[in-house]
Amino acid sequence: MRSVTMTGRLLLDTHVFLWAVRAPEKLSTRVVALLEDRSNELLVCSGTPWELAIKYRSGKLPEAGPVITDYAATLLRLGASSLPISHSHSIQAGLLDWDHRDPFDRLLAGVAVIEGLPLVSRDEVFDSLPEVSRVW
Fold this sequence. Notes:
Elements: E1 9-12, H1 14-22, H2 29-36, E2 41-45, H3 48-57, H4 65-69, H5 71-78, E3 80-83, H6 87-95, H7 103-115, E4 119-120, E5 134-135
Parallel strand pairs: 1-2, 1-4, 2-3, 4-5
Helix pairs in contact: 6-7
């Protein structure tokens, strides 16, 4: 993981968003401090509820049910904003020179690159992308 200078704007990976609202004990001390620092703008990709819903429906994330049911209010309680997916994000995600096939991870990486945002994630797979700065 590269050292990251905080920009004040942070893109949350899906698991970070879910853990922040349902299981904060799973977050690193650094991430908890970043989420609690109200000078940071917390952003959640609009692909996140899609990922949560798919994984909830498939049984992979049963704990996501209440978050999906009350998604907008959950964002507000966390102090986060939804970041819409643009065609530029989608194109960047598809063109990344990265063998990783998970479409949700690719989308997050594309958004992080286009927006110049550090990605708050436990997932080390992002470290193989020099264009993405991962924070954990």
